[in-house]
């Protein structure tokens, strides 16, 4: 005779045995249900967690901020590494540090000799020269002409500048640059946007199509943040955030006035407005155009904002006047989420 078991003879078991059998059956099912419920909770948590990866690092004396959407963390980290490497390389080309390619060219020009450029630096300088020609002299990467050599400090102090040199007036002979800028080429008003445009191209090559890139006074959007657009903050010169703006894919935003902007015509800080914001449409040079447009319009003043921003392809802008009044184009106004409601808001024409 086979021994009595819970399977073969459950009816013959006493009440205590039957209760033990029921408990024995319930334990596996209960454990399974618990495991399934726990798995469902973990899965739900994973689904609710945003696939957002963020990094920041110093660059050009500012902070480079990067946000990537929709990538696995390890893949996003690799893409972020590639972007930050590209920005560091851009700084090694166009930065003002002693080891940059631009500084090396400046040192040669300061000796009155032609400077040899690599292809990338030549292309950047030629683009800056082309953008300079649209600005009526309000944007110029070249330093002032002087009647004496820049190395003679005492003579430089005694002889005033004779007007800003134009980068477009310098001579490009293939990859050789010569002219009378006395080694003073600076691309501060150009380099942030140039670095972001090249970073965006790096991401596209790696098939990362949803990112927000910000460097100093420029922001560039690629794709979206899931189903929502990327959003950036517009600063209030008095402190805090004035408004939030949702960027469309490919758009770039340039700001001027957060830090001093030098008017190349006088060598003094421009002061016609407190803040200028320019939005440029999608293009391969959107960030570069946004930075140059914002600085040029800031120097030109409120009355000239639409003229100079339009020279760089922008139709949307915002200006905070010296008295705190805000002027904004209708198209941009419709897209702003105000954090501080303006007391005086006017149409920018």
From TrEMBL:
Domain of life: Bacteria
Catalysed reactions, semicolon-separated: L-threonyl-[protein] + FAD = FMN-L-threonyl-[protein] + AMP + H(+)
Cofactor: Mg(2+)
GO molecular function, one term: metal ion binding
The enzyme's E.C. designation: 2.7.1.180
Enzyme class: transferase
InterPro entries: ApbE, ApbE-like_sf
Gene3D superfamilies linked to this entry: ApbE-like domains
TM segment ranges: none
Keywords: FAD, Flavoprotein, Lipoprotein, Magnesium, Metal-binding, Transferase
Protein name: FAD:protein FMN transferase
Naturally occurring in which organism (per UniProt): Andreprevotia lacus DSM 23236
Lineage, top ranks: Bacteria, Pseudomonadati, Pseudomonadota, Betaproteobacteria, Neisseriales
């Amino acid at each position: 005779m086979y021994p009595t078991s819970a399977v073969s003879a459950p009816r013959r078991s006493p009440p205590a045995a039957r209760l033990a059998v029921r408990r024995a059956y319930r334990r596996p099912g209960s454990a399974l249900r618990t495991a399934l419920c726990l798995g469902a909770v973990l899965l739900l948590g994973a689904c609710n967690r945003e696939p957002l990866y963020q990094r920041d690092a110093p660059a050009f004396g500012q902070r480079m901020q990067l946000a990537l959407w929709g990538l696995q963390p390890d893949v996003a980290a690799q893409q972020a590494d590639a972007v930050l490497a590209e920005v560091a390389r851009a700084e090694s080309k166009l930065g003002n540090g002693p080891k940059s390619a631009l500084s090396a060219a400046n040192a040669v020009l300061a000796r009155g000799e032609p400077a040899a450029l690599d292809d990338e630096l030549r292309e950047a300088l030629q683009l800056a020269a082309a953008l300079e020609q649209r600005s009526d002299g309000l944007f110029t990467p070249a330093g002032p002409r002087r009647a004496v050599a820049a190395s003679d400090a005492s003579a430089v102090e005694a002889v005033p500048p004779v007007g800003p040199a134009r980068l477009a007036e310098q001579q490009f002979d293939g990859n050789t640059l010569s002219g009378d800028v006395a080694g003073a080429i600076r691309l501060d008003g150009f380099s942030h946007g140039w670095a972001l445009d090249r970073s965006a191209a790096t991401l596209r090559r790696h098939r990362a199509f949803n990112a927000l890139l910000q460097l100093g006074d420029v922001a560039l959007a690629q794709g979206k943040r899931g189903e929502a657009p990327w959003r950036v903050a517009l600063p209030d010169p008095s402190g805090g955030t004035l408004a939030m703006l949702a960027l469309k894919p490919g758009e770039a935003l340039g700001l001027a006035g957060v830090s001093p902007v030098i008017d190349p015509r006088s060598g003094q800080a421009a002061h016609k407005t407190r803040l200028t914001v320019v939005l440029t449409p999608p293009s391969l040079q959107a960030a570069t155009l946004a930075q140059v447009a914002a600085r040029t319009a800031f120097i030109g003043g409120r009355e000239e904002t639409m003229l100079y921003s339009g020279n760089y392809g922008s139709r949307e802008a915002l200006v905070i006047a010296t008295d705190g009044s805000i002027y904004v184009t209708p198209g941009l106004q419709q897209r702003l989420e105000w954090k501080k409601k303006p007391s005086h808001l006017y149409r920018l024409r």
